Amino acid sequence: MPGVKAYKFKLKTNPAFEQACVFTLDTCRELYNASLQERRDAYQINHVSLNYNSQSAQLPGIKALRPDVAAVHSQVLQDVLRRSQKAFDNFFRRVKAGQEPGYPRFKGKGFFDSFVYPQSGFRLEGDKLHLSKIGSCRVRLSRPIEGGIKTCTIKREADGWYVVFAVECNQSRFIPKTGKAAGIDLGIECFAAVSNGERVENPKHYRAAESELKRAQRTVARRKNKRSNRRRKAINILARKHLHIKKAACRLSPQDGA
């Protein structure tokens, strides 16, 4: 049966490509915040609930007045409004379920780090990725892509830019049954204990890097000027350390069954 699989690769960017990506991110973030503002004002002032269709119908008029918005691919802009719609759908779902609702929040500059080409506007030729209204760059294809690419997400992380391809693939492959069963107990001191006596020790990546994180956090705290280059560099160093821990925790060694 068909399914969806994600492939994430690092991009070999150049300054012009990165500048275009940052411009796209900033424009998308502004559109997302404007979408939330319009929805909130429409309900508070006129008691009208807006949705994706009503807001996406305004895009041609906005693009005619705003050259910066017109400089972003139309489907990327539409996906931003779908993200806004999803945020409100989740909000109302939580309200209905009696959970903590968590009203959708405006996104600051460091909290909007991806944009999506949901159907078109991108093309992968060998290891070269072409993005409409942005440019081209090389992709570090660490493994072959199996299946047809459906969406392309460009994501900014602490150590650079990445592309995530959502691929439609055949998931009809099954692991053969052995007729054996095993119990697994997850813990803190021992990450996993198997009923056959095997133990998987907890690597404690965070504990191992805790002293470095504390030093990096103190450095950020000492940089009082929030607009200074020194503070921005300190924040980037801290983010890289957190990213390193995240990747170490997600990486499985061969003996762990990778």
Outline the structure in words:
- There is one protein chain.
- By secondary structure, this protein is an alpha+beta fold.
- The protein has two domains: 2-170, no CATH class; 203-256.
- It is 43% helix and 23% strand.
- A seven-stranded antiparallel sheet has the order 2-6-7-1-5-4-3.
- The relative contact order is 0.13.
- The model is unreliable at 252-258 (pLDDT under 50).
Keywords:
about 260 residues; alpha+beta; 2 domains; 7-stranded antiparallel beta sheet; 8 helices; 10 strands; about 45% helix; globular; disordered C terminus
Describe this structure in a few short sentences.
The protein is α+β, with helices and mostly antiparallel strands and 258 residues long. The chain has helices at 15-46, 52-56, 59-65, 67-70, 74-96, 205-208, 210-222, 229-250; strands at 2-12, 114-117, 122-125, 128-131, 135-139, 148-157, 160-170, 184-186, 190-194, 199-201.
How would you sum up the major sheet? 7 strands, antiparallel
Helix proportion range: 40-55%
Rg estimate, integer Å: 22 Å
Counting helices, strands and paired strands, the structural category is alpha+beta
Average pLDDT, to the nearest integer? 86
> In angstroms, what separates the terminal alpha carbons?
24 Å
* Order of the strands making up the biggest sheet: 2-6-7-1-5-4-3
Global outline: globular
Order of helices and strands: EHHHHHEEEEEEEEEHHH
